[in-house]
Each structure stands twice: as C-alpha cells, then as structure tokens.
Design brief:
- This protein has 576 residues and is of the alpha/beta class.
- It folds into three domains: 157 residues, 3-Layer(aba) Sandwich (Rossmann fold); 192 residues, no CATH class; 154 residues, no CATH class.
- It is built from 19 helices and 15 strands.
- Strands 1, 2, 5, 6, 7, 8, 9, 10, 11, 14 and 15 form an eleven-stranded mixed β-sheet that branches. It has a two-stranded antiparallel sheet with strand order 3-4. It has a two-stranded antiparallel ribbon with strand order 12-13.
- It is globular and about 80 Å long.
Length: 576
C-alpha cells in the first residue's frame, strides 16, 4: 500500500545547523558535489574552459571570412555566452587541428539541423507540418521524439550534407591517426563517433551527396548531434561526467552501432555493454588525475575527522552517545577519500563487490563462474601507523559483514560473521554504487571471510560491483547493506541530508525509497515507529519531485550547496 500523500515541508538552513550541532548530520552526496568548483558553483570552471575553446573556433572562423563561416560565428555567439575575459584567444591552443575541424563540422550540423526545424514561413517555403506523414498522407499526432521530423529536400539540405561529410572526414582523421594523444582529443568513443556518422551519412544521402528520396531528420537525431558536439568539446577536460554524459560515452562503446542514433539513460547504456566497469574505471582515472580538491570536500573531511574525535572520546553514560560519523555517496570518484587523506586520519570505506569463484580442475573453455554479491570494508590507517618506506599509508581489508536477506535463517549465525568491527578507528564512508578506482584485494588476503568464499578446491577473485543498469539497481536493493552497518545507520537521532542528488533520475528515486527501510527506528517509550529526519538540498526541485518526496518524509531545503559548506564550517566541532 503506497504511503499517504504528505506535502514536503519547506525546511531551512536552521534544520541543517541543528543536525550538525547535535552530531546527527549524515550526508548522502551525489554527483553535483563532485562538480563544485572552488567558488562553490557546479561546473563553473568547466564552463570557462569550454568558452576558451570556443574562442579558438571564433578565431578560426574570423580568418575564413566567408558567408558560411559568418553564419557559424553568429550561431556560436548565440549558444555560448562570451564574457569580457574571453575577448582574445588563449596564448596556447588547446585544440588539435582534427579536433577543431570536427567541432566546426558538428557546430554546423547543429546549426543547420536547427534551421531545418524552423517554421516554413522562416524558410520562405509553403506551409508544412513537422509531424511524420504516413503512407496514406494522413498526419498522426506525435507521441515520441521520432514522430517529429522534416524532409531533407529543403533549402538547407545541401549544406547539411556537406557538414556531415566534413564531420566524417575529421572523425576519420582522428581515429586513423597514429598519434598517441587520440584518447586525449576524443576519448574511447572515437571509433563509435566515426561509425555512427558514417551510418547517418549512408542512411540520409546517396553517393552524389544528395538526400535520398524519403530522407528526413528526426528530433532524436538532432539531440544526438547536440550531445556529440558537447562530448567533443569537453571530453578531455578534467571534470567528472554527469550521468547523462557518462551514458553518452558508454553508448559510443556499444558493440553494434546502428542507425538511427539513440540517447540512452545510463542504465540502458550499461546493459548494452558486456563490461561497462572497465571503461568507467579508465575514464574516472583519467578525469581524477588533475582534479583539484574542492573546498566542499575539504570541509566535509574536516567535519568527519573532528566529529569522530567527539565520538571516540564520549564517555559520559548519562548523555546520549553520539553516532558514528558517516557519509554515504552514490559517486564513483574518490574525492572524499582524498580529502580525508589530507588530514592523515584513519578512515573506513564500505565497498560493494562480487566474489567470483570457479572450480580449479575445470579447463578455461569449460569453466563456469559463480558470482555472489557482498561488501568489503577497507580501513586506511593514519600516517602514524608504521609502513615500509615508499609504500604510502597502511591499508587493511576485511569482510563487510553479514547480510541477513542473502541467507537462510538457519545459516545466518554459523556461516556469516555479523560484526566484523569491534572498535571503529575512524569515520565511515559508504560507496553505495561502487568504487571502481579502488584496487581490490585477493580473497586469500581478507580475514574472516564466510566459509562459502574460502573453499580450497575453488579459485576466486573479487570484482567491482557498480550500480548502473536496471538489473544492478534491483540486485542492489535485494542484497541490502550488512546488518552491522544498518544498525549504525538506524541510530535514532540521525538526520539524513541529501546533497547534490538529482531527484529526476529514477535510480535516485528508488534509492531514496530504499532508505526508508533503515532510516526508521522503534520508539520504545510510546510503542511506535519514528522516522529519521530527512532533508534534501537542491535549488532545482520540480513540481512533481515534491509529490514523490512528500510521502517519504523528505523535506526540501531550497538553497545552494555552497551554503551548506558554510554552515558546516560555522558549526565545526572543536579539534581533539
């Protein structure tokens, strides 16, 4: 039975102040937190870098000085807001020749496709509907983006065809180059971009570069061109991708690229690939190499370190014991861990993995692998712990603990240890959707593994478990968190604060609903169940988001994330 509708309460910064001051503050951070720059605005530095690259295109178009280039220049100024600081090109060119040529071709495709969708009156042509015409010449109401289309036998089709040809040549030059910097200029999707452009070109135009008889461009194709233009603009810039950008990158890795192009969700793109983990790990390593630690994560790490000092030193039996300082994150990056390492403090990370095993006696051709989802707990010790010179900080791994929902009740106590941590030595970070940048240990090096994972007749290894596709989400909900961790999170006086979560993503909606299970706790004084306070900080809530959040008792804080950092700074616990 669905929960009754409850309009979400408009909360404020005072609610967050109270949570921080009482030690109940428990942030659940999303992708927007890793996009915050030094001034606290999401992706503002990325926007500046894109503008600088666009200035290079402006310089190139000014040199050409023909009508087509002047039209491109005017369009570029329409879609990009050039501030006064971008009035002159950068001293060092950021774009390679092939990348610049491809950007110009894609910019022209985007501009001309938009012209094709303009009203016929603007094109001085007879009135014509953009809705798809059926064989019987009747017009059906559009029900999906592909039902919006225009024929290419129009005023701008020849220029559009030429732009496609230019884009294909530029993509061929990039992919066919023996230069080792191909990855930096276009990424692992270079081959996919070339193949898709060739497919579009073959489907719409004949060998004479004239449109085929019934060739038409759809709204979906126009959106795909826009995503491709953005991908080429920003790929090698050192900023973590959004879920939409990541989905587009994965779609370029699909083994069979077919016409027409599609814009899948991240879940759909991941399901189309046999191994999405490898490219995602490679991309995030690439993006994190030159990522500057933001003030937001530095503040969160400082709060975790100081709050743990309060937790560790609490000895008054008459006071309500503080909760273990914990951060939950749906991000794949290691920004919060890097910030904690700056403080040289011990911390713990809970990571979802798969334990894969197979019989040693089976040949590789006949090998059958069995995978079991589980959790590993990594402890990164402070710099005070002695380690051999040059090996960095000491790291230990252990079994993450029993998950009761995975086991028959009779086997729970005997096989899977429930509590694997007797005394916490640092705060806890829970990577809800996986941590592909971590190097996983071998099963033999992890103590207290269940008997099912230590069969000597089997070979085994740990693999990363990323929550990407629909199947991953459902499996993740079915497996749940370890019992010991759920007990920690369900401590009665926690306040869950969702930071940087895009409520429009359906996977986040499922995750929010799932949190209801472990964020309710019994009130023994009045024999009923209480619900932990839940707040969501976001300036971009939509009307229907509130209808989803209300029944889950999630209240809205309509403020910028930068203000939350200021409140944490203001109410930071004293050093211990």
């Amino acid at each position: 039975m669905p929960p009754p509708f409850r309009a979400p309460r408009g909360a404020g910064l005072a609610d967050i102040d109270q949570a921080i001051q009482t030690g109940a503050f428990t942030p659940i951070i999303g992708a927007a937190c890793s996009c915050l720059d030094h001034d606290g605005e999401p992706r503002s530095n990325l926007a500046s870098d894109i503008q600088r690259r666009a200035v290079e295109l402006v310089t190139d178009l000014n040199i050409r000085d023909d009508q087509l280039s002047r039209d491109d220049l005017r369009y570029l100024h329409e879609i990009i807001d050039f501030g006064p600081q971008f009035g002159s090109p950068p001293h060092e060119q950021q774009l390679q020749v092939e990348q610049r040529n491809l950007l110009l071709a894609l910019l022209r495709i985007d501009r001309l496709a938009c012209l094709l969708f303009k009203t016929p009156a603007q094109l001085d042509q007879p009135s014509e509907s953009l809705w798809r015409h059926r064989a019987n010449h009747r017009i059906h109401f559009p029900r999906r983006p592909d039902d919006w289309q225009v024929p290419l036998n129009s005023l701008h089709a020849p220029a559009f065809a030429q732009s496609l040809a230019d884009g294909i040549r530029a993509a061929d030059a990039i992919v066919g180059s023996s230069d080792a910097t191909t990855y930096d200029r276009l990424g692992l999707g270079a081959a996919g971009i070339r193949h898709q452009l060739h497919a579009i070109r073959a489907a719409l135009f004949g060998d004479d570069n004239l449109p085929r008889r019934h060739a038409a461009i759809t709204l979906t194709e126009l959106l795909w061109f826009g995503h491709l233009l953005w991908h080429v603009f920003r790929f090698d810039l050192q900023y973590y991708p959004t879920s939409t950008e990541l989905a587009f990158q994965l779609s370029l890795q699909a083994p069979e690229l077919r016409y027409p192009p599609e814009l899948p969700s991240l879940a759909q793109a991941a399901q189309a690939l046999p191994d999405p983990v490898t490219p995602i790990a490679e991309w995030f390593c690439h993006y994190s190499d030159h990522q500057h630690l933001s003030a937001f994560y530095r503040t969160l790490a400082e709060w975790l370190a100081r709050a743990f000092g309060v937790y560790r030193d609490a000895e008054d039996p008459d006071l309500l014991p503080p909760v273990l300082p914990t951060i939950l994150t749906t991000n794949y990056d290691r920004e919060i861990e890097k910030a904690l390492e700056k403080h040289s403090r011990t911390y713990n990370v809970l990571i979802p993995v798969r334990h894969v095993r197979w019989a040693r006696r089976e040949s590789e051709a006949k090998r059958r692998k069995y995978a079991e989802s589980t959790w590993l707990l990594k402890t990164v010790w402070s710099s005070h712990h002695s380690v051999p010179r040059g090996e960095g900080r000491k790291i230990t791994w252990r079994f993450g603990g029993r998950v009761s929902s995975n086991l028959p009740q009779s086997d729970v106590q005997d096989i899977h240890p429930r509590d694997t941590v007797e005394k916490w030595e640092g705060p806890l970070v829970i990577k809800l959707h996986g941590s592909p940048l971590d190097i996983l240990p071998s099963p033999e090096s992890v103590p207290r593994l269940p008997a099912s994972m230590t069969n000597l007749s089997d070979a085994s290894l740990f693999e990363h478990r990323l929550v990407l596709s629909e199947a991953d989400y459902l499996e993740d909900l079915r497996d749940d968190l370890p019992d010991q961790i759920k007990d920690i999170l369900s401590t009665g006086n926690r306040t869950l604060v969702f930071l940087g979560q895009s409520i429009s993503d359906w996977n986040v909606r499922v995750r929010l609903a799932h949190h209801v299970h472990w964020s309710s706790y019994p009130d023994y004084r009045h024999s009923n169940t209480l619900v932990q306070t839940r707040l969501a900080v976001n300036r971009n809530f939509r009307r229907f988001d509130t209808g989803f959040m209300g029944p889950l008792n999630i209240d809205i804080v309509d403020k910028d994330l930068a203000l939350v950092r200021e409140r944490i700074d203001k109410h930071m616990p004293q050093k211990r």
